[in-house]
């Protein structure tokens, strides 16, 4: 009871301070709000919406169940999750935050995952997409497309390690051996696809409408969190709270022989990954390797902004948030470690300016260039896609209310 009262007092004081800060710093709050809004409607909304809609339809048509049966022999021994986890993992890497959480919650609601399996799965399927790593961070902030190779490898290898570690989390309460033996064949996969489609007997038009409305509702929530934490991060800086928190980080950075100037970007990155990565790229006192390690940790930790989005999505189910938060810390440590280990064998060997140009792995160079061009093109057309999609959402919503 005392603990609950203490939590109430803490939350009340925090919200009051936030409200007072908004009044005290109106110009700074407005600028931070616009920055978060631009990020959402230029990049986040148009890049995530197609993945969300298509994924909802794949689940409804039973394709995800089909994929799950086929991937069961791979996902179960390695990560101790059902084969449908392979679909969530792939979509999470392709579309980025917080897609892994949304798809995991959706499959949990469908009954295709147990609570423990869902908590394992969500811990390693939320990751930054290649578009953000190569386009925004490596090119937009560091002006170095080759750095994206290191950041991406460190990020995704760290995620795999988290998945392997989290397989030991929780105790199994159901016996999967009989199920596994029966579902290794294509015929079983096709049967599962058909049975899932029959179970979800919604017409195609209804299924598509539900997919659009559900996806846009989720993205509206994501946009709210992005704007909120963009403002909070700015206010923390002006209230000198970021500087106070950075003093403790300076001790850790000094012990690791890192410049203490990285403390402010690190704290900012704990709240919002975009601002933290941008500030890290501007620290002149740090080497590129040190910046890469700090940025890798920031991307893997995801920031409290993304974690709040995930917590909001998971709150709709019985999936607990604590394992996800614990996994983010582990992911950050692994990503920083991989950035350090891969620096000499990959970046220095292939991308150092001292090396001849024919040492460049052409495929990776073309990938970063293509993603960079697509990222900037998305910024141009993103607002139009967002406005058009919102117009469709309002139309569908109006039609359903009128029909009801």
Report what the structure shows.
This protein is an all-alpha fold. Mean pLDDT is 83; it is low at 174-183 and 354-362. The chain is globular, with a radius of gyration of 22 Å. The protein is built from 18 helices and no strands. It has helices spanning 2-24, 26-61, 63-79, 84-95, 99-110, 115-125, 130-141, 147-166, 177-182, 186-199, 204-238, 241-255, 263-271, 273-281, 288-301, 303-314, 322-351, 362-403. Helix 6 (115-125) packs parallel to helix 17 and helix 15 runs antiparallel to helix 17 (322-351). The chain has one domain. Residues 44-140, 219-315 form the Nucleoside transporter/FeoB GTPase Gate domain. Keywords: Membrane, Transmembrane, Transmembrane helix. This is Sporulation integral membrane protein YlbJ. InterPro entries: Gate_dom, Spore_IM_YlbJ. It holds the Pfam family Gate.
Q: Please report the number of helical segments.
A: 18
Sum up the overall morphology in one term.
Answer: globular
Q: Please state the structural category.
A: mainly alpha
Average pLDDT metric: 83
Count all strands and give the number.
Answer: 0
- How many domains, in number, for the residues? 1
Largest β sheet strand count, sense and barrel closure: none
Order of helices and strands: HHHHHHHHHHHHHHHHHH
Distance between the termini: 44 Å
Hey, roughly how much beta strand do the residues contain?
under 5%
| Low confidence ranges | 174-183, 354-362
Rg, nearest Å: 22 Å
Binned, the helix content reads over 70%
């Amino acid at each position: 009871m005392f603990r609950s009262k203490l939590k109430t007092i803490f939350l009340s004081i925090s919200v009051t301070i936030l409200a007072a800060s908004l009044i005290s710093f109106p110009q700074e709050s407005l600028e931070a709000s616009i920055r978060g809004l631009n990020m959402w409607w230029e990049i986040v909304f148009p890049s995530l919406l197609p993945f969300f809609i298509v994924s909802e339809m794949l689940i409804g048509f039973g394709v995800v169940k089909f994929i799950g049966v086929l991937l069961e022999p791979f996902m179960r021994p390695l990560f101790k999750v059902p084969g449908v986890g392979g679909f969530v993992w792939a979509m999470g890497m392709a579309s980025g935050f917080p897609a892994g959480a949304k798809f995991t919650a959706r499959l949990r609601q469908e009954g295709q995952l147990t609570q423990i399996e869902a908590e394992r799965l969500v811990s390693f399927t939320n990751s930054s997409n290649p578009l953000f790593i190569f386009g925004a961070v490596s090119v937009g902030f560091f002006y170095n497309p080759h750095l994206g190779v290191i950041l991406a490898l460190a990020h995704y290898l760290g995620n795999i390690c988290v998945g392997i570690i989290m397989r030991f989390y929780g105790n199994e309460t159901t016996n999967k051996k009989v199920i596994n033996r029966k579902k290794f064949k294509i015929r079983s996969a096709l049967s599962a696809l058909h049975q899932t489609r029959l179970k979800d007997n919604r017409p195609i038009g209804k299924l598509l409408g539900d997919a659009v409305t559900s996806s846009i509702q989720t993205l509206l929530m994501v946009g709210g969190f992005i704007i909120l934490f963009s403002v909070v991060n700015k206010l923390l800086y002006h209230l000198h709270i970021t500087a106070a928190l950075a003093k403790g980080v300076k001790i850790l950075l000094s012990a690791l022989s890192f410049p203490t100037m990285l403390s402010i970007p690190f704290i900012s990155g704990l709240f919002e990954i975009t601002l933290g990565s941008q500030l890290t790229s501007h620290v002149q006192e740090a080497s590129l390797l040190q910046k890469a390690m700090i940025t890798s940790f920031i991307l893997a930790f995801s920031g409290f902004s993304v974690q709040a989005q995930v917590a909001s999505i998971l709150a709709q189910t019985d999936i607990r948030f604590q394992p996800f938060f614990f996994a983010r810390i582990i992911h950050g440590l692994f990503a920083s470690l991989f950035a350090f280990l891969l620096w000499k064998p990959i970046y220095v060997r292939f991308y150092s300016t001292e090396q001849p140009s024919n040492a460049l792995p052409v495929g990776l160079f073309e990938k970063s260039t293509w993603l960079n061009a697509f990222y900037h093109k998305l910024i141009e057309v993103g607002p139009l896609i967002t406005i058009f999609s919102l117009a469709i959402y309002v139309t569908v919503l109006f039609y359903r209310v009128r029909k009801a």
